[in-house]
Every structure is written in structure tokens, then in C-alpha cells.
Amino acid sequence: MTITPGDLQRFWTKVARGPGGCLLWTAGKGNLGHGRFWHEGRLGGAHRFAWEATHGPIPAGLEIDHLCRRPSCVNVAHLEAVTPAVNSQRRSRDLVADRGGGCKHGHDASEYKRYEYAYGSFLMCRACMRDSAEKQRAKKRARTGTSP
Fold first, then answer.
1. Counted domains in the chain
2. What phi and psi values does residue 123 have, to the nearest 5 degrees?
3. Same domain, 102 and 74
């Protein structure tokens, strides 16, 4: 990736100071709140552009994690290149902490698991997932008239 002074100037005009030393992206954002930036004819993550402008290419097999947990932050001091597993583990830990240590139905935080699908991933309590699957099976049985 080639980054010109013009690219950097255009990038930094879309950044504002935020709390805790964050540099927050003020332009377009994706569904999860990550800044989006056009560079070399492609739309990519603003945090990834900031990382690559400072540190060079992101190492193969690594992702950029926000240590401050703010997806719109582009402060390279708040970014770290980590494996997808570490990034997912940190996201899961933070989500569980935000929920007070458990799910909204009162199940223990140790019951959480990240479910991966082709369209993305989400974190859900295993007990809630089992309950949901059982409800779906019961609906199907009721429709077809079969018993367990």
C-alpha cells in the first residue's frame, strides 16, 4: 500500500479528539462502528489505515484490536495487532463484563460461546442457545404432529 501526504491529510481531517486520548473517526462508519476510509480505490477500516501508515502492513494472520474498546478510535497507541482468537476473546470478555458477568436471563458468564457463521459471528450464552434450539424443535414437532 502506498500512502501519500495527500492521503494522510485527507485522513486526519476526519478525526477529532475524544475521551481517554482516543482519536475518533468522524466520517462514515460501518455497522459495528468502525471508521471507513477510501484509499487506493477501496473502502477499508480507518483504524487499519492508521496502523499501516504508522507501522507498515498488518502481519499475515493478525487483526487490529482496539485496546480502548472504541471501534471508531484511530489512535495507533490504542491499537494492537493480535490473532483473531485473542481479538475474539477480548471482545467476549468485554461483552460479558458489560452485562454484569452473565446473560440477561441470569446464566453464568462461563456459559458464553462465540458462534461463527458465514455472515459474521455473535456471542451467546450456551444455556440460552440450548433453550432456543429446544423451542425451535418443539415448534417443528407441533407443526408435524410428532412426539419427542
1. 2
2. -105, 130
3. no
Domain that holds residue 2: 1-81
Same domain, 103 and 50: no
Give the C-alpha separation, 81 to 70, whole Å.
15
Same domain (yes/no): 33, 102: no
Give pLDDT tens digits for 3-28: 888 899 999 999 999 999 999 999 99
Would you say residue 148 lies in a domain? no
Q: Specify whether the CB–CB gap between 125 and 105 falls below 8 A.
A: yes
Write the secondary structure of the chain as one string of H (helix), E (strand) and C (coil). CCCCHHHHHHHHCCEEECHHHCEEECCCECCCCCEEEEECCEEEEHHHHHHHHHHCCCCCCCEEEECCCCCCECCHHHEEEECHHHHHHHHHHHHHHHCCCECCCCCEHHHEEEEEECCEEEEEEHHHHHHHHHHHHHHHHHHHCCCC
Is residue 89 over pLDDT 90? no
- Rounded to an integer, what distance in angstroms lies between the CA atom of residue 45 and that of residue 38? 9
Query: pLDDT per residue over 112-148, tens digit each?
Result: 666 666 666 666 777 888 888 899 999 988 888 776 6
